[in-house]
């Protein structure tokens, strides 16, 4: 089939490479301009550069809603559009233009985790598996009929970077296999159960702030979700910002006030956590590595030279 691809960052790069290696003809690529946004500098392999290496015409757009782009899409006469990590709304007159519509590839197991940052939110929420969904685009974001869906397990100590690497391997194959389903003439794809749908927003600074009333296992997942190269989860110590780079859940139970710097355990320092910590039934967050506001990374036992005092959510 003649394919137009809308894509961005490493997800789009990996998808475009799979299309270029397939039997299909990529006739046009549409991608976003480079961005200095913190999250868009991560996993930033260039779709435009890859297209240029293969002599594929590329159009740069923030939003694909202008007449010039629409006219060019009509001229190249695609059989299908593929969209991967496209960051803005694609209007109906574009996604319905090709005979076979538009196949969108999203990094969650839809209908759950539609929208943004699905791997981070899924890890924070203790999901046991994550995955990728290829679905037909319709007027509601990430809500179209499912063509194919593939899952991978979440390991007990996985970070978001681990989940990225696992799910990235699915993007190329699910795109090419999804196009095979479409090319076969199938149209009886699986309707999404909207009663199970959830929609998440982009991560922002406030979403990284540690609330010590969360349980230790929840804070552990937050730290693993906000791993490098993402911005780290943070709190404050003596009025200065302190990022938690690595942590775990303590073996022992510690009671008291959430945020209390309590006790050395192994290679970490136990920080009291959880709204019910005063009852002495809670595990603590075992902080192992921190980063100070001037960028110095230290082991927790090196940074916390004395026990006592508090980590707080705000200065």
TrEMBL record:
Gene3D superfamilies: 3.40.50.12230
E.C. number: 2.1.2.9
GO molecular function: methionyl-tRNA formyltransferase activity
Uppermost EC category: transferase
Keywords: Protein biosynthesis, Transferase
Taxonomy, superkingdom: Bacteria
Residue span, Formyl transferase N-terminal domain: 1-169
Annotated ranges, domain Formyl transferase C-terminal: 205-305
Family listed: Belongs to the Fmt family.
Protein name as annotated: Methionyl-tRNA formyltransferase
Species for this entry: Saccharothrix hoggarensis
Classification of source organism: Bacteria, Bacillati, Actinomycetota, Actinomycetes, Pseudonocardiales
């Amino acid at each position: 089939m003649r394919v137009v691809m809308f894509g961005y960052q490493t997800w789009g790069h990996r998808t475009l490479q799979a299309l270029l290696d397939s039997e299909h003809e990529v006739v046009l690529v549409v991608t976003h301009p480079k961005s200095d946004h913190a999250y868009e500098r991560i996993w930033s392999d260039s779709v435009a550069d890859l297209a240029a290496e293969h002599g594929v015409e590329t159009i740069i757009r923030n939003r694909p809603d202008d007449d010039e782009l629409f006219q060019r899409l009509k001229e190249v006469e695609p059989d299908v559009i593929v969209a991967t990590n496209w960051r803005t709304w694609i209007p109906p007159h574009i996604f319905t233009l090709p005979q076979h519509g538009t196949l969108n590839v999203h990094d969650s197991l839809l209908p759950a985790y539609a929208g943004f940052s699905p791997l981070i939110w899924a890890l924070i929420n203790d999901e046991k598996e994550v995955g990728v969904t290829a679905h037909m685009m319709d007027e509601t974001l990430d809500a179209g009929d499912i063509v194919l869906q593939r899952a991978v397990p979440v390991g007990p100590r996985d970070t978001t970077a681990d989940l990225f690497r696992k799910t990235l391997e699915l993007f190329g194959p699910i795109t090419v296999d999804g196009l095979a389903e479409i090319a076969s003439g199938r149209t009886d794809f699986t309707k999404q159960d909207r009663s199970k749908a959830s929609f998440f927003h982009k991560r922002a600074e406030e979403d990284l702030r540690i609330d010590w009333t969360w349980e230790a296992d929840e804070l552990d997942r937050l730290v693993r979700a906000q791993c490098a190269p993402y911005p780290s989860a943070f709190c404050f110590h003596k009025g200065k910002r302190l990022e938690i780079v690595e942590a775990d859940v303590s073996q022992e139970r510690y009671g008291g006030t959430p945020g209390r710097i309590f006790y050395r355990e192994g290679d970490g320092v136990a920080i009291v956590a959880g709204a019910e910590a005063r009852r002495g039934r809670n595990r603590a967050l075992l902080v192992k590595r921190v980063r100070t506001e001037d960028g110095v990374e230290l082991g927790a036992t090196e940074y916390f030279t004395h026990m006592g005092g508090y980590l707080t959510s705000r200065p």
